[in-house]
Amino acid sequence: MAADKDKADPIILGDPPDSSDNQVLPFAIEGMEVRGRAVRLGTVAGQILAAHAYPLPVARLLGQVAALTALLGSIMKIEGTFTVQARAKGAVSLLVADFRSPDELRAYAEFDEEKVAALPDAAPIRDLVGDGHLAITIDPADPGMERYQGIVDLAGDSLADCAAAYFTSSEQTPSEVRLASGRDPVSGNWRAGGIMIQYLGRQEQGGARISDEEKEESWSRASILLDSIKDEELLDPALTLPQLLYRLYHEDGVRVFGAVKLKRGCRCSDGKIEAMLEAFSTKDREDMTDDGVITVTCAFCNRDFTVAAA
Ligand SMILES: [Zn+2]
Question: 302 alpha carbon to ligand 1 midpoint, in Å?
Protein backbone atom coordinates (compact mmCIF):
# COMPACT_ATOMS: atom_id res chain seq x y z
CA MET A 1 0.00 0.00 0.00
CA ALA A 2 1.35 3.41 -0.94
CA ALA A 3 2.29 5.80 1.82
CA ASP A 4 0.08 8.83 2.37
CA LYS A 5 2.67 11.20 1.02
CA ASP A 6 2.48 9.45 -2.37
CA LYS A 7 -1.19 10.22 -2.77
CA ALA A 8 -2.42 13.05 -4.96
CA ASP A 9 -2.99 16.42 -3.29
CA PRO A 10 -6.08 15.77 -1.14
CA ILE A 11 -7.29 19.38 -1.30
CA ILE A 12 -8.23 19.16 -4.96
CA LEU A 13 -11.04 16.69 -5.52
CA GLY A 14 -11.47 15.01 -8.91
CA ASP A 15 -14.12 16.16 -11.35
CA PRO A 16 -17.44 14.36 -11.00
CA PRO A 17 -17.75 12.07 -14.08
CA ASP A 18 -20.73 13.86 -15.64
CA SER A 19 -19.78 17.40 -14.61
CA SER A 20 -19.38 20.38 -16.90
CA ASP A 21 -16.29 21.45 -15.03
CA ASN A 22 -13.21 22.77 -16.80
CA GLN A 23 -14.78 23.45 -20.16
CA VAL A 24 -16.16 26.16 -22.42
CA LEU A 25 -19.42 25.39 -24.21
CA PRO A 26 -20.35 27.51 -27.26
CA PHE A 27 -24.08 27.90 -27.98
CA ALA A 28 -26.63 29.66 -30.18
CA ILE A 29 -30.14 30.70 -29.27
CA GLU A 30 -32.60 29.49 -31.90
CA GLY A 31 -34.31 32.14 -34.01
CA MET A 32 -32.11 34.93 -32.66
CA GLU A 33 -28.93 36.46 -34.00
CA VAL A 34 -27.36 35.66 -30.66
CA ARG A 35 -24.32 33.48 -30.03
CA GLY A 36 -22.74 32.75 -26.70
CA ARG A 37 -20.29 30.74 -24.65
CA ALA A 38 -20.50 29.36 -21.14
CA VAL A 39 -17.58 28.34 -18.94
CA ARG A 40 -17.14 26.33 -15.75
CA LEU A 41 -13.90 25.96 -13.84
CA GLY A 42 -13.74 23.37 -11.06
CA THR A 43 -10.36 21.80 -10.28
CA VAL A 44 -8.69 24.22 -12.71
CA ALA A 45 -9.86 27.18 -10.59
CA GLY A 46 -8.80 25.29 -7.46
CA GLN A 47 -5.30 24.62 -8.79
CA ILE A 48 -4.81 28.21 -10.01
CA LEU A 49 -6.01 29.81 -6.77
CA ALA A 50 -4.46 27.30 -4.36
CA ALA A 51 -0.94 28.00 -5.70
CA HIS A 52 -0.90 31.24 -3.68
CA ALA A 53 -2.40 32.29 -0.35
CA TYR A 54 -4.74 34.91 -1.79
CA PRO A 55 -7.10 36.86 0.46
CA LEU A 56 -10.75 36.06 -0.31
CA PRO A 57 -11.57 39.17 -2.44
CA VAL A 58 -8.39 38.72 -4.52
CA ALA A 59 -9.07 35.02 -5.11
CA ARG A 60 -12.66 35.79 -6.08
CA LEU A 61 -11.58 38.44 -8.59
CA LEU A 62 -8.78 36.31 -10.03
CA GLY A 63 -11.18 33.39 -10.46
CA GLN A 64 -13.38 35.67 -12.55
CA VAL A 65 -10.40 36.84 -14.63
CA ALA A 66 -9.54 33.18 -15.29
CA ALA A 67 -13.14 32.38 -16.30
CA LEU A 68 -13.25 35.42 -18.62
CA THR A 69 -9.91 34.45 -20.17
CA ALA A 70 -11.18 30.93 -20.88
CA LEU A 71 -14.39 32.31 -22.42
CA LEU A 72 -12.56 34.70 -24.73
CA GLY A 73 -9.36 32.75 -25.36
CA SER A 74 -11.23 29.69 -26.59
CA ILE A 75 -12.71 31.83 -29.41
CA MET A 76 -9.21 32.15 -30.95
CA LYS A 77 -9.12 30.41 -34.29
CA ILE A 78 -5.32 30.48 -34.52
CA GLU A 79 -2.66 28.81 -32.41
CA GLY A 80 -1.38 31.20 -29.82
CA THR A 81 -1.78 32.79 -26.41
CA PHE A 82 -4.69 34.95 -25.31
CA THR A 83 -3.99 37.19 -22.31
CA VAL A 84 -6.29 39.27 -20.12
CA GLN A 85 -4.37 41.68 -17.91
CA ALA A 86 -5.74 44.27 -15.50
CA ARG A 87 -3.23 46.82 -14.21
CA ALA A 88 -4.40 49.23 -11.55
CA LYS A 89 -3.35 51.54 -8.74
CA GLY A 90 -5.51 50.13 -5.95
CA ALA A 91 -5.10 47.39 -3.35
CA VAL A 92 -4.93 44.91 -6.24
CA SER A 93 -2.32 46.14 -8.73
CA LEU A 94 -2.22 43.28 -11.23
CA LEU A 95 -4.53 40.51 -12.36
CA VAL A 96 -3.32 38.40 -15.24
CA ALA A 97 -4.57 35.23 -16.87
CA ASP A 98 -3.65 33.57 -20.11
CA PHE A 99 -5.09 30.83 -22.27
CA ARG A 100 -2.70 28.98 -24.54
CA SER A 101 -4.34 27.02 -27.33
CA PRO A 102 -5.65 24.44 -27.32
CA ASP A 103 -6.49 24.12 -23.62
CA GLU A 104 -4.10 25.63 -21.04
CA LEU A 105 -5.19 28.22 -18.52
CA ARG A 106 -3.14 29.95 -15.79
CA ALA A 107 -3.43 33.15 -13.73
CA TYR A 108 -1.95 35.16 -10.86
CA ALA A 109 -2.47 38.41 -8.97
CA GLU A 110 -0.30 41.02 -7.26
CA PHE A 111 -1.76 42.96 -4.37
CA ASP A 112 -0.98 44.93 -1.22
CA GLU A 113 -1.85 42.70 1.72
CA GLU A 114 -2.58 45.53 4.19
CA LYS A 115 -4.75 47.49 1.77
CA VAL A 116 -6.75 44.38 0.84
CA ALA A 117 -7.21 43.47 4.53
CA ALA A 118 -8.69 46.93 5.15
CA LEU A 119 -11.47 46.28 2.61
CA PRO A 120 -14.63 44.23 3.21
CA ASP A 121 -14.68 40.70 1.72
CA ALA A 122 -17.46 41.70 -0.66
CA ALA A 123 -15.71 44.86 -1.89
CA PRO A 124 -16.69 45.74 -5.48
CA ILE A 125 -14.01 45.74 -8.17
CA ARG A 126 -13.65 49.53 -8.22
CA ASP A 127 -12.69 49.53 -4.52
CA LEU A 128 -10.21 46.70 -5.03
CA VAL A 129 -8.44 47.88 -8.16
CA GLY A 130 -9.11 51.64 -8.30
CA ASP A 131 -8.08 53.38 -11.53
CA GLY A 132 -6.62 51.15 -14.16
CA HIS A 133 -7.14 49.43 -17.45
CA LEU A 134 -7.91 46.02 -18.85
CA ALA A 135 -5.77 44.87 -21.76
CA ILE A 136 -6.62 41.98 -24.04
CA THR A 137 -3.74 40.58 -26.09
CA ILE A 138 -3.48 37.86 -28.71
CA ASP A 139 0.05 36.56 -29.37
CA PRO A 140 -0.04 34.22 -32.38
CA ALA A 141 2.28 31.21 -32.20
CA ASP A 142 3.27 31.97 -35.80
CA PRO A 143 5.91 34.74 -35.54
CA GLY A 144 4.89 35.94 -39.00
CA MET A 145 1.45 36.97 -37.70
CA GLU A 146 0.81 40.28 -36.02
CA ARG A 147 0.17 40.66 -32.29
CA TYR A 148 -3.19 42.18 -31.36
CA GLN A 149 -3.91 44.32 -28.31
CA GLY A 150 -7.07 46.13 -27.20
CA ILE A 151 -7.46 48.23 -24.06
CA VAL A 152 -10.45 49.43 -22.05
CA ASP A 153 -10.67 51.42 -18.79
CA LEU A 154 -11.46 49.46 -15.64
CA ALA A 155 -14.83 51.05 -15.06
CA GLY A 156 -18.21 49.64 -14.13
CA ASP A 157 -19.40 47.66 -11.16
CA SER A 158 -17.84 44.35 -12.11
CA LEU A 159 -15.19 42.72 -14.25
CA ALA A 160 -18.02 41.34 -16.41
CA ASP A 161 -19.23 44.91 -17.09
CA CYS A 162 -15.69 45.96 -18.13
CA ALA A 163 -15.46 43.02 -20.53
CA ALA A 164 -18.90 43.72 -22.02
CA ALA A 165 -17.96 47.39 -22.48
CA TYR A 166 -14.77 46.33 -24.26
CA PHE A 167 -16.62 44.22 -26.84
CA THR A 168 -19.42 46.69 -27.30
CA SER A 169 -17.02 49.60 -27.96
CA SER A 170 -13.98 48.04 -29.65
CA GLU A 171 -15.67 45.37 -31.72
CA GLN A 172 -19.01 47.09 -32.28
CA THR A 173 -20.68 43.90 -31.11
CA PRO A 174 -23.25 44.37 -28.35
CA SER A 175 -22.20 41.93 -25.63
CA GLU A 176 -23.27 40.87 -22.17
CA VAL A 177 -21.07 38.98 -19.74
CA ARG A 178 -21.73 37.33 -16.39
CA LEU A 179 -18.92 36.00 -14.21
CA ALA A 180 -18.84 34.39 -10.78
CA SER A 181 -16.23 32.83 -8.56
CA GLY A 182 -16.43 31.42 -5.07
CA ARG A 183 -15.90 28.48 -2.78
CA ASP A 184 -18.19 25.50 -3.14
CA PRO A 185 -20.32 25.46 0.04
CA VAL A 186 -19.96 21.67 0.36
CA SER A 187 -16.32 20.92 -0.56
CA GLY A 188 -14.83 24.36 0.11
CA ASN A 189 -13.03 24.14 -3.27
CA TRP A 190 -12.77 27.21 -5.45
CA ARG A 191 -14.98 27.33 -8.53
CA ALA A 192 -15.54 29.90 -11.26
CA GLY A 193 -18.08 30.23 -14.04
CA GLY A 194 -19.38 32.61 -16.63
CA ILE A 195 -21.54 33.19 -19.67
CA MET A 196 -21.14 35.65 -22.52
CA ILE A 197 -23.70 36.44 -25.20
CA GLN A 198 -23.13 38.54 -28.30
CA TYR A 199 -25.60 40.11 -30.67
CA LEU A 200 -24.62 39.45 -34.25
CA GLY A 201 -27.76 40.97 -35.79
CA ARG A 202 -26.03 44.10 -37.02
CA GLN A 203 -23.42 42.09 -38.88
CA GLU A 204 -25.92 40.19 -41.01
CA GLN A 205 -26.03 40.95 -44.71
CA GLY A 206 -29.36 40.66 -46.57
CA GLY A 207 -31.75 37.83 -45.70
CA ALA A 208 -34.28 40.13 -44.03
CA ARG A 209 -36.53 37.36 -42.75
CA ILE A 210 -36.47 38.89 -39.29
CA SER A 211 -37.16 42.62 -38.96
CA ASP A 212 -34.67 44.88 -37.18
CA GLU A 213 -37.25 45.56 -34.52
CA GLU A 214 -37.70 41.86 -33.83
CA LYS A 215 -33.91 41.41 -33.71
CA GLU A 216 -33.48 44.21 -31.17
CA GLU A 217 -36.32 42.79 -29.13
CA SER A 218 -34.80 39.30 -29.09
CA TRP A 219 -31.41 40.73 -28.02
CA SER A 220 -33.10 42.59 -25.22
CA ARG A 221 -34.86 39.38 -24.10
CA ALA A 222 -31.63 37.36 -24.26
CA SER A 223 -29.88 40.02 -22.12
CA ILE A 224 -32.64 40.18 -19.53
CA LEU A 225 -32.66 36.37 -19.21
CA LEU A 226 -28.86 36.34 -18.82
CA ASP A 227 -29.18 38.93 -16.09
CA SER A 228 -31.58 36.65 -14.21
CA ILE A 229 -28.94 33.95 -13.49
CA LYS A 230 -27.71 33.78 -9.95
CA ASP A 231 -24.01 33.40 -9.13
CA GLU A 232 -24.79 30.06 -7.44
CA GLU A 233 -26.18 28.74 -10.74
CA LEU A 234 -23.02 29.75 -12.58
CA LEU A 235 -20.99 27.77 -10.04
CA ASP A 236 -23.25 24.82 -9.07
CA PRO A 237 -21.36 21.56 -9.83
CA ALA A 238 -24.69 19.67 -9.90
CA LEU A 239 -26.09 21.88 -12.69
CA THR A 240 -24.38 21.05 -15.99
CA LEU A 241 -23.77 23.80 -18.54
CA PRO A 242 -26.39 22.39 -20.98
CA GLN A 243 -28.92 22.30 -18.10
CA LEU A 244 -28.06 25.89 -17.18
CA LEU A 245 -28.46 27.06 -20.79
CA TYR A 246 -31.75 25.15 -21.09
CA ARG A 247 -33.00 26.79 -17.90
CA LEU A 248 -32.20 30.21 -19.38
CA TYR A 249 -33.24 29.89 -23.00
CA HIS A 250 -35.62 26.91 -23.25
CA GLU A 251 -38.49 29.05 -24.54
CA ASP A 252 -36.53 29.94 -27.66
CA GLY A 253 -34.44 26.79 -27.85
CA VAL A 254 -30.70 26.64 -27.49
CA ARG A 255 -28.20 24.69 -29.57
CA VAL A 256 -24.82 23.77 -28.11
CA PHE A 257 -21.64 23.06 -30.05
CA GLY A 258 -18.49 21.07 -29.22
CA ALA A 259 -17.02 21.90 -25.81
CA VAL A 260 -13.44 23.08 -25.38
CA LYS A 261 -11.87 21.19 -22.46
CA LEU A 262 -9.53 23.14 -20.19
CA LYS A 263 -6.63 22.30 -17.92
CA ARG A 264 -4.33 24.29 -15.67
CA GLY A 265 -1.05 24.72 -17.50
CA CYS A 266 2.11 26.67 -16.88
CA ARG A 267 4.93 27.26 -19.31
CA CYS A 268 7.73 27.70 -16.78
CA SER A 269 10.74 25.39 -17.25
CA ASP A 270 14.41 25.17 -16.29
CA GLY A 271 15.38 26.27 -19.79
CA LYS A 272 13.14 29.36 -19.72
CA ILE A 273 14.34 30.41 -16.28
CA GLU A 274 18.00 30.02 -17.37
CA ALA A 275 17.37 32.04 -20.52
CA MET A 276 15.66 34.74 -18.46
CA LEU A 277 18.62 34.93 -16.05
CA GLU A 278 21.09 35.21 -18.93
CA ALA A 279 19.49 38.52 -19.84
CA PHE A 280 20.73 40.01 -16.53
CA SER A 281 24.23 41.46 -16.06
CA THR A 282 26.89 39.47 -14.17
CA LYS A 283 26.58 41.98 -11.31
CA ASP A 284 22.79 41.52 -11.11
CA ARG A 285 23.17 37.74 -11.13
CA GLU A 286 25.74 38.00 -8.31
CA ASP A 287 23.27 40.09 -6.30
CA MET A 288 20.63 37.40 -6.75
CA THR A 289 22.96 34.58 -5.70
CA ASP A 290 22.51 33.03 -2.29
CA ASP A 291 24.61 30.05 -1.15
CA GLY A 292 25.88 29.56 -4.71
CA VAL A 293 22.43 29.34 -6.29
CA ILE A 294 19.81 31.68 -7.71
CA THR A 295 16.25 30.80 -6.76
CA VAL A 296 13.50 32.02 -9.06
CA THR A 297 9.81 31.50 -8.29
CA CYS A 298 7.30 31.27 -11.14
CA ALA A 299 4.73 34.02 -10.52
CA PHE A 300 1.94 31.92 -12.02
CA CYS A 301 2.33 28.50 -10.42
CA ASN A 302 4.60 29.48 -7.49
CA ARG A 303 7.10 26.72 -8.38
CA ASP A 304 10.72 27.36 -7.27
CA PHE A 305 13.59 26.93 -9.73
CA THR A 306 17.14 26.69 -8.46
CA VAL A 307 19.90 27.56 -10.87
CA ALA A 308 23.60 27.16 -9.99
CA ALA A 309 25.32 30.54 -10.18
CA ALA A 310 27.92 30.54 -12.98
ZN1 LIG B 1 4.89 28.19 -13.58
Answer: 6
Q: How far is the CA of 60 from the centre of ligand 1 (A)?
A: 21
Residue 3 confidence (pLDDT):
36
Specify the pLDDT at position 7: 36
- pLDDT reported for residue 48: 96
At 65 the three-state DSSP class reads helix
Note if the pTM is more than 0.85: yes
Q: What is the DSSP letter of 3?
A: -
By C-alpha distance, which of 181, 100, 103, 179 is closest to 134?
179
User: What's the 221 CA to ligand 1 centre distance in angstroms?
Assistant: 43
Distance from residue 300's CA to the centre of ligand 1 (Å) = 5
Domains of the chain with CATH codes: 17-264 (3.55.30.10), 270-308 (no CATH)
What residue ranges of the chain have pLDDT lower than 50? 1-13, 205-208
- Residue 274 has phi, psi (to 5 degrees) of -60, -45
The residues pairing with 84 across neighbouring beta strands, listed in sequence order, are: 97, 136
